């Protein structure tokens, strides 16, 4: 079954939004200022993120978890404003004639906002990765060498039209002691502004820097390119989205990049599996939300149970509108 769409980081993050300089998470040099080029804008955001990352890297688990729980509450308490902002993005996308799958990824609902909040609570419940000893070796001369998890510093995330990624990534970065710059799709700009404003305010009220989570509030390619070239300001970039976006960042960026996958998620049914449970898993993995990147695309079935299981699975998937493409026997 599909799990949360995100990746755990054990190193730095901060974020902000530039449209409203008087509010947490918003940079005074954002879209529409006209006074800065994109490189200067990104460097200013990253400088604030760097300051926040120093605080986060030394923050206790209790402090980080309290901020995460406050972030979850803020999403729920400000749900109406978040949904109203998202509705603007959805209407604009409909007018542009985007695909049904794209529109589904963009759309928020009360249930999806609550899932975002629960995701933050789940991150709060995780052990603190900072300071965890991964391995220890002892050299023949008695020297002990330990591998210990530490924050990265300032993380930049470039991603596409799923506004729930904004909350997911912010939570993972804060938990791992990182500050984050979030550069989402222009399609979701209103949604991301509302989400980041709520998150940053909650972080600040909790006693951690609001600049721990900042939104890159400039549509267009220029700001993303500036992030890719922000050597010494951003410690690592993580692209999340389609193959084109990921390859562009991987081939263009001058800062280190963590390359993510583009999908082709597999479900394997073994001969020892409970086939009733397996069928439910297959349906969920493909049909719960087929537009997301972790929806099932390939079903592999052990040859011993394939004659019995595949007809059942095919019938169930076809009833739900799934197109099947099988390999030759």
Structural description of this entry:
The chain is α/β, with parallel strands linked by helices and 329 residues long. The chain has 2 domains: 38-252, Aldehyde Dehydrogenase, Chain A, domain 1 (3-Layer(aba) Sandwich), CATH 3.40.605.10; 265-319, Aldehyde Dehydrogenase, Chain A, domain 2. It has helices spanning 38-58, 61-77, 79-96, 100-106, 110-125, 164-175, 189-205, 221-228, 243-252, 275-287, 306-319, and strands at residues 133-138, 144-148, 154-159, 179-183, 213-215, 236-240, 265-269, 296-301. The strands form 3 sheets. A 4-stranded parallel sheet has the order 5-4-3-6, sandwiched between helices. It has a two-stranded antiparallel sheet with strand order 1-2. A two-stranded parallel sheet has the order 7-8. Helix 5 packs parallel to helix 6.
Features:
329 residues; alpha/beta; Aldehyde Dehydrogenase, Chain A, domain 1; Aldehyde Dehydrogenase, Chain A, domain 2; four-stranded parallel beta sheet; two-stranded antiparallel ribbon; 47% helix; 12% strand; globular; disordered N terminus
């Amino acid at each position: 079954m599909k799990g949360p769409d995100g990746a755990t980081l054990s190193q730095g993050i901060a974020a902000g939004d530039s449209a409203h300089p008087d509010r947490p998470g918003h940079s005074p040099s954002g879209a529409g200022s006209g006074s800065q080029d994109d490189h200067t804008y990104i460097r200013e955001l990253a400088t604030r993120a760097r300051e926040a990352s120093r605080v986060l890297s030394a923050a206790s688990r209790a402090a980080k978890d309290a901020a995460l729980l406050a972030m979850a509450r803020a999403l729920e308490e400000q749900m109406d404003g978040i949904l109203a902002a998202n509705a603007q993005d959805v209407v604009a996308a409909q007018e542009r004639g985007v695909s049904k799958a794209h529109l589904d990824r963009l759309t928020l609902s009360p249930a999806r906002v609550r899932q975002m909040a629960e995701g933050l609570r789940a991150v709060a419940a995780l052990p603190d990765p900072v300071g965890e000893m991964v391995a220890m070796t002892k050299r023949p001369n008695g020297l002990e060498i330990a591998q210990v998890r530490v924050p990265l510093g300032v993380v930049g995330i470039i991603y596409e039209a799923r506004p729930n990624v904004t909350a997911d990534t912010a939570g993972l970065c804060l938990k791992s002691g990182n500050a984050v710059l979030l550069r989402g799709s222009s399609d979701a700009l209103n949604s991301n502004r509302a989400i980041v404003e709520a998150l940053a305010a909650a972080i600040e009220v909790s006693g951690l820097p609001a600049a721990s989570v900042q939104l890159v509030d400039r549509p267009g390619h220029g700001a993303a390119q500036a992030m890719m070239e922000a050597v010494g300001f951003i410690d690592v970039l993580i692209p999340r989205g389609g193959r084109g976006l990921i390859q562009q960042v991987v081939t263009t960026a001058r800062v280190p990049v963590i390359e993510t996958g583009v999908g082709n998620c597999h479900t394997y049914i073994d001969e020892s599996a409970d086939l009733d449970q397996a069928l439910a898993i297959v349906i969920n993995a493909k049909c719960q939300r087929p537009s997301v990147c972790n929806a099932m695309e390939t079903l592999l079935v052990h040859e011993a149970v394939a004659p019995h299981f595949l007809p059942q699975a095919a019938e169930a998937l076809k009833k739900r509108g799934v197109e099947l493409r099988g390999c030759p026997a």
